[in-house]
Amino acid sequence: MIHEPCMLFRIVSVVVGVLPLHALLILLWRQQHQVSCFDFGPTDLNVLFKCLRSNFLAAQSIPSLRHHEKITREPAALFASVVSGVLAEGCHTSRTTAPFIDKRLFFDSTVSRYYCVISERKYDHQWRGLGVFVVPRNTNGPGVHLMAPHPIFDGSTDFQAVWIFQQHSTMFRSLLIAGRHRNAFPCTSNCVNGSTKAPYFMTDPTHSAGEPFARAAISIVQFNRLFPTTFCNNVTANASAVPCGVIQLHGQRSCPESTVFLSAGLANSSSLYHPSSPPSTLYGRVKRMLGMTRDVGWTVDDPWTSSCKLAATQNVLGRIVNGVEVGKECSNQPDCAHCSGDFVHVEQGETARESKEAWSRIGRALAGL
Questions:
Q1: Which of 26, 262, 331, 353 would bridge 302 by S-S if both were Cys, CB 3.0 to 4.6 A apart?
Q2: Is the distance from CB of 184 to CB of 204 less than 8 angstroms?
Q3: How far, in Å, CA of 195 to CA of 177, rounded?
């Protein structure tokens, strides 16, 4: 039985409540005339994303379990397939696409760089909340993938991720941003449930493996694994190798003593958090670089230095990166005393995520990997 929070919502009132009138009129006009964000001629990735974000699914915007199934199961699989194709073959990939997936080559004149952008078209009078995936043109192989799973809910972390990616795109292999508010359908997840007092909902892609973001993120991790570990210098001394793994940007208020709280998706007792753990892992590199921000009064913690509970042990992608078999991430925890450190979960207080100055500081730290 579906509980009351899962019943039909007044979607129009939700939209009107969060958008100023002029923005709402522009959005309604664009939706009525089927005009793409690309048709306005943006030349800055940040401007393009701001437009694409206006089509993301808001909190409580999915009216029923049946509708969630319709806009999730097949669309998520197709979106993940296109993501895999672009990583493997470039923007000209012939992987199966769909009328609701938009694949474009985009030139950002502010940094003189081409990107392949995968986003969504409105189709059959509805948005599906697939999200946005971006890769620099003419890059290949594995690398570090930057992700923002909780747009809207986690403040400006999605805008932050786009800005950092644009400014340091030679450092990152790809950018993935979810297209749904984590509470777009507030029914308890059938993957990782959370607790009675703080349940995780079906549209939270860090706790629901079937969501479009989660499916795409898993395909990204599987792509990285196609390459021998010698490509990645967090596991080898090869000077020509690159760092590999996933960095997720989040926002938090529950641990106010920490400007930034880092974790690797592992329990607080993991040896990876010990000060003597290998600094060459992706986690170790991020920890070292962000530690340099202490000179501006930031407190950078991890499970070794803080009792904060945000260690991401229930993050489905974190579990997979840390060795859980795909398909078992909803129930299994990583079984490892020494995991790779290829998953980095960055929980940021407001100081670290709500200003360009802070974005720049985080970006420089991550780019210094």
A1: 262
A2: no
A3: 26
